[in-house]
Design a protein that fits this description.
single chain; mainly alpha; 10 helices; disordered N terminus
């Protein structure tokens, strides 16, 4: 009797239920087609479907819209002053806004997070993370901190060099314009980050756009350097050396350091 029961139980496991679908000719034909997929494999991680990333992008959009609406006159005033060759003094800044420093900080934060999103989206796509794995969200925070440290380390370096070679008023104007221009990159890097995250077929355009923005940013800084610090006829060579030492050299060092950390630490030890 026990063996007969076990035999009945085994037959239940191998018996296929018959219904209106699997009894048709088309079902029988489909059952013989070999399965070319890999069974029980989790779908790869896609940043565009991450709730935290979507929420962060939405928050950054509302912050950008609020700052643009609230401080549109101040931004227009700063842009007008940035593209003028007239030497400006602190006393002439009649459009000072008490919240301007906070808004510049917020815009710089949005720019930092956008750059981090562009970098990590490409990194995650190459690594093909699985949804079964824990997603390293802390890399966004690490990229944000690295961007901030780089921006304000350069500001400290500018302040040190300007204190030695230039007058106080010109140094203050240069620092204000440097922080303002850096914060304005948020209005460019954020749309690029949106395209990169939600339109993966435009990766080449995203990379080209980011490089173009970086080149334009450096050109505008060099323009402001020439117009802000008045030099004599043969002093432009010193301006070029100053710009290369304080601006271009740190950018190149940061780029090589980022590639080295990405290839030798993040990819090898964290994502695989």
């Amino acid at each position: 009797m026990p063996f007969r029961i076990m035999g009945d139980y085994d037959s239940l496991l191998i018996t296929r239920d018959s219904n209106a679908i699997n009894s048709t000719e088309f079902y029988q034909m489909g059952a013989t087609v070999p399965d070319r997929t890999v069974a029980m494999v989790e779908r790869t991680y896609n940043v565009a479907y991450d709730d935290y990333v979507v929420g962060g992008m939405a928050v950054m959009f509302f912050l950008l819209a609020f700052i643009l609406f609230h401080s549109r006159s101040v931004i227009a005033y700063r842009l007008k002053n940035f593209f003028t060759a007239k030497r400006k003094y602190v006393d002439e800044d009649v459009a000072e806004n008490a919240s301007e420093a906070i808004e510049i900080l917020v815009l710089t934060s949005i720019s930092a997070l956008s750059v981090s999103a562009i970098y990590l989206d490409d990194l995650f796509n190459q690594s093909r993370l699985s949804t079964a794995m824990s997603i390293p969200y802390w890399l966004y925070a690490a990229g944000f901190v690295a961007f901030f440290l780089f921006i304000y380390a350069k500001a400290w370096l500018y302040a040190l060099v300007n204190w030695v070679f230039f007058d106080a008023e010109s140094s203050k104007q240069w620092m204000r314009n440097y922080l303002f221009l850096t914060s304005m990159t948020a209005f460019v890097f954020y749309p690029i980050a949106l395209v990169d995250v939600y339109a993966n077929s435009y990766d080449d355009i995203v990379i080209s756009s980011a490089i173009l923005v970086a080149i334009l940013y450096e050109m505008l800084l060099f323009y402001k350097l020439i117009t802000n610090f008045k030099v004599k006829k043969y002093g432009y060579l010193l301006n070029i050396l100053y710009f290369c030492t304080v601006e271009l050299l740190p950018v190149l060092v940061l780029g090589h350091l980022t590639v080295w950390i990405s290839d030798n630490f993040i990819v090898k030890n964290l994502l695989y």
